[in-house]
Design brief:
- This protein has eleven helices and six strands.
- It is an alpha/beta fold and 286 residues long.
- The protein has a six-stranded parallel β-sheet with strand order 2-1-3-4-5-6, sandwiched between helices.
- The longest helix has 18 residues.
- The protein is globular and about 70 Å long.
- The N and C termini lie far apart (58 Å).
């Protein structure tokens, strides 16, 4: 005899949702997603934050994830973002846009806002795991023996020039700008926040010191940063990523934030995180 309770539970699986479509988010301005240092993501997708842009578009957000030079100094990358901002405001017929920047992209945009003629086009500025106080991982990379570092730099610059030939790559100079000493002693004093633009930040922590998993390949750098700076996402510490109004600390690794090397059981965390970011902007009237 079939148990009535079991039957009801089975039939529950076929119950229709009243609104099965993705949740609608209504922002006043388009979103420009600014990617960080590196070109690994660009080898497997059109742009590092392409998956984020497509996911946000299913929620009615006009999101764009273009490419700029992957390995270059902050000043050079900032010029690329400014050019794109002006193109987007013109093509979308919007006088302002919301900037959401990942990793080094946040430093690029801080520089652009403080030093270039673009602040009037920015409604809000949000950073995701940006090394606002530098990262000890950059210092570790630069301490690699010269012979190894030079060969690696040659390869990264070669790859950067191939995938983005419009601007010359410089992996070593750009990595040097991510060190704690450079960011805290040189960059931050010369790059104040711009009045009238809200600055928000998200941090993330996985691996050592948390209950969140991290890939085996990233455990060494995760531990290295933890021992010096504390909880981190495998590349940037929670402490370093705080800037302006800190919104929350997520539990996605630096690569998972770009939907790279993410396991199926953590895919929902990726979607929820980015949806929360734009819902935050909606709640704050942007």
């Amino acid at each position: 005899m079939i148990d009535r309770l079991d039957t009801d539970r089975w039939l529950k699986r076929f119950e229709l949702n009243k609104f099965p479509e993705p949740e609608i988010v209504q922002l006043k301005h388009p979103v420009l997603l600014c990617h960080g240092y590196g070109a690994i993501a660009s080898l497997v997708k059109p742009s590092p934050l392409y998956d984020v842009a497509l996911m946000l578009r299913t929620h009615n957000v006009m999101a764009f994830a273009p490419n700029i030079v992957p390995y270059a100094k902050i000043e050079t990358r900032a010029k690329g973002w400014v050019k794109l901002i002006k193109e987007l405001t013109k093509s979308t017929q919007s006088d302002k846009i919301n900037i959401v920047a990942h990793s080094m992209g946040g430093l690029d945009m801080r520089y652009a806002l403080s030093n270039m003629d673009v602040a009037q086009h920015v409604a809000s500025f949000t950073t995701i795991s940006t090394p606002h106080h530098g990262t000890s991982l950059a210092e570790l990379t630069l301490k690699t023996p010269d012979a190894i570092r030079d060969k690696l730099a040659d390869f990264l610059d070669w790859m950067g020039d191939r995938i983005y030939p419009h601007t010359k790559s410089d992996s070593v100079a750009s990595a040097a700008q991510l060190t704690r000493q450079y960011v805290t002693d040189v960059f931050n004093p010369a790059t104040p926040n711009v009045d009238g633009i809200p600055y928000y930040s998200y941090t993330s922590a996985v691996g050592k010191g948390t209950n969140e998993p991290i890939r085996v390949i990233a455990r060494y750098q995760n531990k290295h940063i933890y021992d010096i700076e504390g909880p981190n996402d495998g590349m940037v510490s929670v402490k370093s990523a705080k800037w302006g109004e800190h919104i929350k600390t997520s539990n996605l690794s630096h690569l998972e934030q770009m939907n790279l090397r993410i396991k199926d059981d953590r895919e929902a965390l990726f979607n929820t995180f980015w949806l929360d970011v734009v819902k935050m902007l909606e709640a704050k009237g942007h």
